[in-house]
Input
Amino acid sequence: MEDKKIIFSAVQPSGNITLGNYLGAIKNWVDLQADYHCCYSIVDEHSLTIRQDPVLLRKRTLDLLKIYIACGIDPVENILFIQSHVPAHAQLAWILNCYTYMGELSRMTQFKDKSQKHADNINAGLFTYPVLMAADILLYGADLVPVGKDQMQHIEITRDIALRFNSIYGDVFKIPEGFMPKAGAKIMSLTEPLKKMSKSDENPKAYISILDDFNIIAKKIKSAITDSEGVIEYRENDETKAGINNLLTIMSAVTGRRIEDIASDYQGKGYGDFKADVAEAVVEHIRPIRQKYDELSQDKAYLVDIYTRGAERANHIADKTLKKVYKKVGFIV
Output
């Protein structure tokens, strides 16, 4: 048991958790917990790089905690916690800021993208965001961090910072690696299927929220952009088939069936029938998650207990790492 590697992963509570977040990340976390020691966080501090409604942020934080558990993440077997409940994240981030170079941060793709989207709020937190992410990972001695290809840059800068610190002070941080779970499904926008499904999309028809009304989910899928060809077939490099490719990917992810087998079932059939079946499959897959979510919503004391215990366990590990760092840099501890 003690030989298991450590995994750290997290999601921001800055928007509605989408079907893409679930199928691409959280669903895989459930599978990982049997083979790894897992630390799963709700990173509310990261969400402040964009202006948040405080009431809504608190609600979404608890919603995300409930979704984690409802999806099957065991809060006893795993360390499940809210980032702001562990002060060491911010404390270590400041120290690591002093070992990170402006040039490194200016090259981060996410900073460039978010600066364009929020040109009226290009704040220092947005610029140093990757350093806080590095602190998140390094505090827990993570061996592996599940990421998509678009997030690998964050793992690279985390490694660079950790290696730089270790070269000065010795073997302080474990050097993490990016980990791409083989089962991760990349779910695209329903309205612009060449773009990844995003919880921050301004068009609510573009994404499916795990908390959407079931009828709304069905309507969104039935109105998803496809093409005029009328052929249900997966063609990976054919942009005109991006919409159908996406629906086939979703159907495969929620049913566990191969895309080729699903496409074969719909030879000669129309998009209308296919979309209706995708909608039904998605709703039935989400239904038990929603039932568990609703149960958790009625038990506030249980949720408080979960995030309190999670914070205690996370603080125990994080404080040890922080104390080691404090000693190395010359602080009195």
